[in-house]
Amino acid sequence: MTHSAKIFVSMRDGVLEISGSEEFVREQLKKFDDLIIKHLSNMPISEQPSIPSSPQPAPEEGAQDDAWKAVSYHNVMAFDRDGIKILKNIPGKSGAEKAVNAALVYLYAKNVKGQEEALFKEIRELCKDHGCLDSANFASNLKSEKQYFIIGGSGKKQTAKLTQPGKTKAAALVDELNS
């Protein structure tokens, strides 16, 4: 039985993705090994991701390699046992726009961790930390962006998760913040 494997290398978003059987991925990795090592040796140590020495099993179809995303966006987000920290200032011309952008970035980070939704309480706390919380209008600001968010629950159990257009918008925002 042939197992599926996948390798993803960003090297600052130059991106090289190889997937297929373990044997195929191993052969391709050998071909690009020198190039990858040469490029990594020219990167500052703080930016060098750890690359697995042997092909790893591919994630289930549709799943993304979250570890690589986390490495790719280490300028924007940090993960610790207390949760997710957004390291950059949230862009926006108004408090409402900043709150929506904060929710987009936070939910993107939750997706990187393999979690699709977040409690409003978590997003409120992020907005408070970033100085863009308008507590009287917070929920209505998120609910008004129906193209980006799916809102569920009610009261203290209210949640948000990204729609596909929301994921696209969030990815663009995170890329912008990361550069």
TL;DR?
By secondary structure, the protein is α+β, with helices and mostly antiparallel strands. It has helices at 22-42, 66-72, 95-112, 120-129, 138-143, 164-178; strands at 4-9, 16-21, 56-57, 77-80, 83-86, 117-119, 149-152, 159-162.
Describe the structure.
With 179 residues, this protein is α+β, with helices and mostly antiparallel strands. It starts with a strand and ends with a helix. The chain is built from six helices and eight strands. Helix 3 crosses helix 4 and helix 3 packs across helix 6. About 13% of the residues have low confidence. It has a three-stranded antiparallel β-sheet, covered by helices on one side. It folds into two domains: 63 residues, no CATH class; 106 residues, Arc Repressor Mutant, subunit A (Orthogonal Bundle), CATH 1.10.10. The chain is elongated. 25% of the residues are buried.
List keywords for this structure.
179 residues; alpha+beta; Arc Repressor Mutant, subunit A; 3-stranded antiparallel beta sheet; 6 helices; elongated
List the helices and strands and how they pair.
Elements: E1 4-9, E2 16-21, H1 22-42, E3 56-57, H2 66-72, E4 77-80, E5 83-86, H3 95-112, E6 117-119, H4 120-129, H5 138-143, E7 149-152, E8 159-162, H6 164-178
Antiparallel strand pairs: 1-2, 1-3, 4-5, 6-8, 7-8
Helix pairs in contact: 3-4, 3-6
Helix content range? 40-55%
Treating each run of at least 4 consecutive H or I residues as one helix, how many helices? 6
Secondary-structure element series: EEHEHEEHEHHEEH
Q: Which residues sit in consecutive blocks of at least 5 with pLDDT less than 50?
A: 45-68
Number of strands: 8
What would the principal axes of the Cα set say about the shape?
elongated
Query: Proportion of β residues?
Result: 15-25%
The average pLDDT value, as a whole number, equals 77
The fold-level CATH name of the largest domain is Arc Repressor Mutant, subunit A
Largest sheet: 3 strands, antiparallel
